[in-house]
Amino acid sequence: MTHALSPAARRWSIRGWIPDTDWKCTSTLDLAPSTEHVLVHLAGTSRMEVTIHRSGVEKLLTAARAGNACAIPAHHTIHGERLLCLRPEERPGEPLWTDATVPFRGRMVLYLILPDENTMILFDQEQLMSLAVVLAEILVEVTPVAR
Predict the structure, then answer these.
(1) Is 0.85 surpassed by the pTM of this model?
(2) N or C: which end of the chain has fewer CB within 10 A?
(3) Domain of life, per the record (predicted)?
(4) How many domains would you assign to the chain?
């Protein structure tokens, strides 16, 4: 289920950073020409590229806005079916976000775990708002009219 980009596809970039480092990275989201699938390139690497269905974009958006966790089905070209996950950051010495009585408003982590590599991208609140805007824009895209 790999979707090659065509000139008609849309691309968005989101800045974040690798946890426990000062390394900033850019992840890209490419809307496939069919508008039913999105290619997610975590940290801009092809090794961490997965395809998600449009319905997964809606789940990511809902979780990002609410400060909740979610795991959505994703397809990796080498490792097959995986989960692309978003969750609040866990910080030493602080209560777990699952124990919170108010909505979480801290940093969140988007991550993918593969058998031979894991990638985690951390978003502060400003970056998380940018991610939510991108996800919302993807959802309003319409299927191109056939020519």
Answers:
(1) no
(2) C
(3) Bacteria
(4) 1
